[in-house]
């Protein structure tokens, strides 16, 4: 039987990909004690390709950047599923961290990160409401436009 979270994913038309393999010396996720899962930063990968590259506000539109953040969160959730199996074990999205590749003139980082934050609430309901940091950076791995990391409370 499909769980509540899996049902929400299906209703949204989201099929979780296989979790991305780390590209350096780190792991995709780690437990930071009983019931706390930390997921490494995920970029907007789909079928092994980075779909949104470049700088937000200088070649990457705000709408595309939001879509990139949303895609990053899908990849974060794929890591969570790999870690815990049943997504209904997620009691709460504790924190999301967003990194936005942009020039110094760009100031709409929060609106970009809403792509991930809004999806977290769509997927996990009230348990998806989280604390968050959003940081502008000059570049990201693979020239990705956005990267998102997360922390989750697990039952």
TrEMBL record:
Q: Pinpoint the Endoribonuclease L-PSP/chorismate mutase-like domain residues.
A: 6-143
Task: Look up the signal peptide feature and give its range.
Answer: none
Task: Please report a single Pfam family linked to this protein.
Answer: YjgF_endoribonc
Name-wise, this protein is RidA family protein
Q: Which organism is it from?
A: Roseomonas haemaphysalidis
